[in-house]
Amino acid sequence: MNRRRFAAVSLVAALSLALGACSGGGTSSPSSSGGGDTSLSSVKSKGQIVFATEGTYKPFTFHENGSGPLTGYDVEIAKAVADKLGVKAGFQETQFDGIFAGLDAKRFDAIANQISINPERSAKYDFSTPYTVSPSVIVTKANDNSITSFDSLKGKTTAQSLTSNYYKVAQQAGANVQAVEGWAQSVELLRQGRVDAVVNDKLTFLDYAKTNPNSGLKIAAESKDKSQNAFAFRKGSTALVQAVDKALADLQSDGTLTKISEKYFGADVSK
Question: Do the beta carbons of residue 52 and residue 104 sit within 8 Å?
Answer without folding.
Answer: no
